[in-house]
Known about the structure:
It is a single chain. The chain has 230 residues and is α/β, with parallel strands linked by helices. It has 2 domains: 3-123 and 204-215, Rossmann fold (3-Layer(aba) Sandwich); 134-201, Alpha-Beta Plaits, CATH 3.30.70. Helix content is 29%, strand content 27%. Helix 2 (34-45) links the parallel strand 1 (26-30) and strand 2. Helix 1 packs across helix 2 (34-45). The longest helix has 12 residues, at 3-14. The radius of gyration is 17 Å and the shape is globular. It starts with a helix and ends in an 8-residue tail after the last strand. Residues 8, 31-35, 84-87, 97-103, 106 line the site of ribulose-5-phosphate.
Amino acid sequence: MSNQDELKKAAALAALAELETLAPESLIGVGTGSTVNHFIDALASRGLRIRAVSSSEASSTRLVAHGIPLASLDDAGELPVYIDGADEIDHGFNMIKGGGGALTREKIVAAAARRFVCICDEAKQVATLGRFPLPVEVIPMARVQVAREIARLTGGEPRWRKGFVTDNGNHILDIHGLAIIDPSGLETALNQIAGIVTNGLFARRGADVLLLATATGVRRSERKPSDDRR
Ligand code: 5RP
């Protein structure tokens, strides 16, 4: 296991403590990615009796393989907690997500949760979001037109993630070359472009808790009310 993967695993294991107050058979939201894969494996190896609303086909497959029951969002109502990774997170708990292409379902499940717990390694924490290309899910027929609009709006360079189709049957544009000064404003502005399903900025619904794995241990921090941009 690489050093970064060890840190991802440490963050994932730390997330188990966030579930301690939940009643058995509680429903939680589960994100997508290699960090979350460690979390799913840890849920199973500890034998925790929970049910999950999943944010992707990949996570669903892994949850089911471990015998963890799935529930649909329709049946779930409000979730006490959503656990997911990030591609970048800033000091205001705004994130870029969607490196794995699951951003739309991640945003939907996160919106249903009272608390978003972000699990990641220290390489993901940045002063300004944007070095990681910002993923945008687009309706396939609108891809070229949306790319033009994005370039005009942001000054960044949208690149088609060729050969990749989302769980919803759509395409992804990754916007390169951004330095995102106003994450919430850009999240809202991008969503006004016809043909965009979702963008990977999680600012209007950012993280509430960050479990950041570092070389000296996992640091837990909570978003302060003054960070609130919703
Ligand atoms: C998937 C995501 C992931 O949370 C993000 O890409 C982080 O992935 P990893 O844990 O593999 O580094 O948003 O759409």
